[in-house]
C-alpha cells in the first residue's frame, strides 16, 4: 500500500529496515531521512484529523515558534473518544518563550504542565542534531528523554487549543514487562544526572524523581502480582531487585520530603524486606483500580 502511494506522490518515501531496531532508532532514521523544515510523529496505534498537519503549520506560521503542541482525544479501548486536557490552564492557548520556558522545564521532573510525548506536536527539524543526541536505549519514556535532550534548543512553544490527535489507550500490560522497570531506572539516572550537573534548578526536583522511581517499582510488582506468574518467582525477582544499589538514593530524600524516609514503602525497599514490599505492592490495588478494571471488562464485552 505504501509503495502505491509512493508511485502517486513523490513526497512520500518508503524507508525499509532489515529488522525492527526499536522505537528510538526508528525516530532517528526518520529524522535523518526527513527533508522538510518541520517534523511530526504519529504513533502506530494512533490517528489524527485530516487537517492535523495543516492546522499545526498554520499555528507555527502565525507564531514563528519552534514547537506547536496541540490538544488531543483519548480513545478508550474500542469506544468513544473523550477530549483530554493535558496542558496546565496557565499555558493553554499561549505562546511561551524566554524565562518562562525555564520555569516550565520543571515538567520533566514529575510536574504535570504539558504532555512530554513526541506525538501531538510539530517540531522545527533543526532542533534535532543527531550527532549531539545520545542513542536512547529505552522503550518506556523514550520520548520523554528525547524531548529533554532537545529542550535546551527550544526558544518558543505554542500551546494550541486545536484538538487534532487521537491517542489510543487501554490495556496497561506493558508494566508487567521486565523492560518497564529497567527503563524507568535508566530514565531516573538521566534525570538525576541533569540535576547533579546543575543544568536544571527546581525546588524538590530530586525528591520528586525519587518518588517517581519508587512508584514505578511498586507499579511493576503490583502488576506482577496480578499476573499468572508463580508467586515464588515473583519473590525471587523482588529479592534480586531490592539489592540494587540504586535504591540507596532513597536516603537522599530531603527538606519537606525528608519524613518519607520513614514511609513504609520506602523503608521496605531500603531494608530489602521482600514480604513487606510485596504486601504493600499488592495493597496499592485500591478501589479505584478495581473499579477501573471492572469498567474495562464491561467495555470489552
Q: What value does the Rg take, in angstroms? A: 21 Å
Main structural class:
alpha+beta
* Mean pLDDT figure: 88
Series of H and E elements: HHEEHEEEHEHEHHHHHH
Number of helices: 11
Low-confidence stretches: 297-301
Tell me which CATH architecture of the largest domain applies here: Alpha-Beta Complex
The major sheet is characterized as:
7 strands, mixed
- Tell me what portion of residues adopts beta-strand conformation: 5-15%
Q: CATH homologous superfamily of the largest domain, by name?
A: Spore Coat Polysaccharide Biosynthesis Protein SpsA, Chain A
Fold-level CATH name of the largest domain: Spore Coat Polysaccharide Biosynthesis Protein SpsA, Chain A
First-residue to last-residue Cα separation = 33 Å
What is the strand and helix layout of this fold?
Blueprint: H1 2-8, H2 23-33, E1 38-40, E2 47-48, H3 52-63, E3 67-76, E4 81-84, E5 95-97, H4 99-104, E6 121-124, H5 142-150, E7 156-169, H6 178-196, H7 205-225, H8 231-241, H9 264-270, H10 274-283, H11 286-299
Helix pairs in contact: 6-7, 7-10, 9-10
Description:
The chain has 301 residues and is an alpha+beta fold. The chain has two domains: 2-169, Spore Coat Polysaccharide Biosynthesis Protein SpsA, Chain A; 173-299, no CATH class. It has eleven helices and seven strands. It has helices at 2-8, 23-33, 52-63, 99-104, 142-150, 178-196, 205-225, 231-241, 264-270, 274-283, 286-299, and strands spanning 38-40, 47-48, 67-76, 81-84, 95-97, 121-124, 156-169. Strands 1, 2, 3, 4, 5, 6 and 7 form a seven-stranded mixed β-sheet that branches. Strand 3 (67-76) and strand 4 form a beta hairpin. The longest helix has 21 residues, at 205-225. The model is unreliable at 297-301 (pLDDT under 50).
Amino acid at each position: 500500500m505504501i509503495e502505491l502511494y509512493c508511485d502517486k506522490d513523490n513526497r512520500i518515501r518508503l524507508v525499509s529496515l532489515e529488522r525492527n531496531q526499536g522505537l528510538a532508532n526508528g525516530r532517528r532514521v526518520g529524522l535523518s531521512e526527513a527533508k522538510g523544515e518541520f517534523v511530526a510523529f504519529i504513533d502506530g496505534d494512533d490517528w489524527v484529523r485530516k487537517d492535523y498537519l495543516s492546522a499545526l503549520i498554520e499555528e507555527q506560521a502565525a507564531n514563528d515558534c519552534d514547537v506547536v503542541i496541540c490538544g488531543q482525544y483519548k480513545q478508550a479501548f474500542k469506544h468513544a473518544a473523550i477530549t483530554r486536557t493535558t496542558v496546565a490552564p496557565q499555558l493553554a492557548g499561549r505562546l511561551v518563550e524566554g524565562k518562562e520556558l525555564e520555569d516550565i522545564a520543571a515538567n520533566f521532573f514529575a510536574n504535570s504542565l504539558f504532555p512530554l510525548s513526541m506525538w501531538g506536536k510539530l517540531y522545527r527539524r533543526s532542533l534535532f542534531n543527531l550527532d549531539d543526541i545520545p542513542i536512547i536505549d529505552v522503550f518506556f519514556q523514550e520520548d520523554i528523554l528525547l524531548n529533554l535532550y532537545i529542550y535546551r534548543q527550544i526558544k518558543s512553544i505554542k500551546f494550541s487549543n486545536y484538538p487534532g490527535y487521537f491517542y489510543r489507550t487501554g490495556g496497561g500490560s506493558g508494566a508487567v514487562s521486565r523492560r518497564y522497570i529497567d527503563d524507568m531506572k535508566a530514565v531516573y539516572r538521566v534525570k538525576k544526572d541533569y540535576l547533579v550537573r546543575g543544568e536544571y534548578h527546581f525546588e524538590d526536583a530530586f525528591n520528586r524523581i525519587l518518588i517517581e522511581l519508587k512508584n514505578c517499582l511498586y507499579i511493576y510488582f503490583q502488576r506482577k502480582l496480578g499476573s499468572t506468574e508463580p508467586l515464588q518467582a515473583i519473590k525471587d525477582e523482588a529479592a534480586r531487585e531490592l539489592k540494587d544499589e540504586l535504591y540507596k538514593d532513597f536516603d537522599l530524600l530531603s527538606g519537606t520530603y525528608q519524613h518519607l524516609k520513614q514511609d513504609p514503602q520506602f523503608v521496605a525497599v531500603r531494608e530489602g524486606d521482600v514480604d513487606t514490599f510485596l504486601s504493600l505492592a499488592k495493597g496499592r490495588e485500591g478501589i479505584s483500580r478495581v473499579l477501573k478494571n471492572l469498567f474495562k471488562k464491561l467495555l470489552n464485552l
